[in-house]
Every structure is written in C-alpha cells, then in structure tokens.
What we know:
Elements: E1 4-8, E2 13-17, E3 37-41, E4 43-44, E5 50-56, E6 67-68, E7 73-78, E8 83-85, E9 87-90, E10 93-96, E11 107-112, E12 118-121, E13 126-127, E14 132-140, E15 145-153, E16 161-173, E17 180-183, E18 186-189, E19 196-202, E20 207-210, E21 218-228, E22 237-246, H1 249-263, E23 280-282, E24 290-291, E25 296-297, E26 300-306, E27 319-322, H2 331-334, E28 339-344, E29 348-352, H3 354-357
Amino acid sequence: MKKYIVKFGFAGVLVLAFYACIDPFSPPEVNSVEKYLVVDGFLNMSKDTTKIELRRTQNAQEKTAPTPELGAKLSLEGEKGEMYPFTDRGKGLYILLPGVLNRAVKYRLNITTKNGQQYVSDFVAVSKTPPIDSVTYNFDKVLNAMVIKVNTHDATNSTRFYRWQFDDTYEYFAPYFSGLEVVGKELLGRQKNINQCWKSGKSANIILGSTIKLSRDEIRDLPVNIVPVASNKLLTRYSILVKQYGLTQEAFEYWTSLSKTTQSTGSLFDPQPSQVTGNIRNKANPKELVFGYFSAAVEQEKRIFMEPRLGYYETCVIDTLPLRCSTPDVECVFNTQKLLLTYVGLTDVLAVAPSCADCRVQGGSTTKPSFWSF
C-alpha cells in the first residue's frame, strides 16, 4: 500500500491523502479471539440520513469479512436528555432520518447491544462545514490518471480541520449488444437492455486536510481521488460526488492516528501499528477496547461529471450458432450458455460469452442513477 503526503509549498497546507486499497477496518494489533466493537459513522446535521454501522473486530489472519453487530438499540441523546431512536436496517446498519436537531446543542451516541452491553460516546459539538468552492480535475501523464481535486475556504477562519469522502459512478457498455434471448421454446427479441450499465463505489481512503498553521482558512487543489486510465472508468462518462466535513481538533487527531496505523507502508521509519481508540466506551467497563469516533458535522456536497474518453475498448470473439428449426424448438441455441446477438441470414445466430454482451457481469446495474442527467 502506498501513502501520499502532499505539501503545498505556496500555502503550507499539510494534506494527508492516502490512496490505497483498504479492507474493512480490522486493527492489525488485534490478534486475539476478542471481538471488540467497531462503530463507524457520524451525526449528519444536513438534510441527509445519519448512518451508523456496527461491526466486530477479528483476528488479523482471518479472511472473512468482519461480523456485523445485529439487534442493537441505538439512540441519539441531547445535552438536556432528549432522545432520538435509530432504526435497525439489518446487517449491522442503523439509521436516523433527518429531523429537527439543533446545531447549537451537543449530542452523544448510546448503544445497547443484543447481549445487554451498553456503550456511550462523549458529547460532541456540531462542527461547522463551509461549502465546497469547486471540484476540479486534470490529467497527470506520469500517473496516466485523472487527478480530482477539491477547493474550499472558510471566511470566518473557524473550521481549520477537514475530512473528505466521495461516491463515484461511471457509465460503461458491454462490447456487443445482445438483441435475442430464448424465452421458453422461442427465440425472441430481448426486452431488457443489458448492454449499458452504471457502477458506483465509495472512497476507502482517509482524506484529511488542515489549515491550522495558515493565516487563512483556505485549501486549494487538494487531491481527493486518482482515477487510472487502466480502470476504464473514464472511457464513457464518469461522475464523482465529493463530501466535505468540518472536524474538531480531537476528531482530526483521531483520524490522523488511524490513517498512520492502518495505511502506513510498514517500513522501520513509519509509525508502528497501535491501538487507536476514539471517544466511545463501555459504560460498565471503560477499559474495554472500542474502536470508532462519533462526531457531528454539517455535510457539504458537490458533484461533477466528465467525459474524457480515456481507456480501452474490449475485444471479444463472436461465434456463429446454426438454427436447427425443423420444429418450433430452437434446438442449438436453447442449451448454449452464450448470449445471442442477432440473426445472420436465415440459418445462423451470432453469439458471444456473457462477459462480452452482459454489462452486469462486471458488477454494474442497468438501472440509471437518478442523478444521471442523460
């Protein structure tokens, strides 16, 4: 894994932007059979839903995904005791719909697990988040990739600590269009277009920035994502939704420590793995390890689209399958595992492997996202 630390000399902004492939959070120092609670999420004070995911840590040698914490009861508590219950959506996900919350009030998270263990976070103030000024991009010939950058500033000089995440989506097409399919014992025109797909992903990197050493609370051209040409995400149309959050200094220090622990290169000169815990504790046993940091912030977003037409067109071998139509049955094509494209004359049909004509094989969906303009 590689770590990129970019320092902008003209402004002295220290940016912690780590580009790596990250597995679900499992602290490398946890090699025992203990299953510690991991709390992932924050209080979203914008008009979006608050999402909290609960998982259990696992031995660093395990290959399976972390176990979700099922059947827990979560609630948001205000300073004066007001309570707002979360809804259990299953698979360890708990949500709180947007409501009437006061940005001047401090809140904390309460968790009661299915086995009766109670966890609570510290009360946290709502961090201010200024709007994103712009999201820009430029092609880097050395990296052979598109570098996407964010720009922001706080005229009141009061934010100082930032974190970014993003959702990205790209449109792609299978090399060939499948216009035929077998329905029952008939060869008919395909009713559903499986040639065009959209595939989405989320940032898996810890992206931080601070202007604490600057006279102005301003960040310019901070890289938030690098999209290699080889990924083929840039071949047709690509969109990224950048999300920005203001942080308290304590939250910033937590995320900085976590990034050093989980994403260092592992050399003797890098920070060694350590137990990075946050502001959540077990009420009955404060010494128990609990991983995660609960914070509250106003989320700011900005989406851009691009059509750079960079990438590589796939090639596939087309087969010709004869139609043996002495009966209404389609004998030859009925049992093939290949996808049928179109007729050739009166006796043959073109066919290819599913990966060449069904875009869903690559993990995408044929449902156009609601934000996709055309």
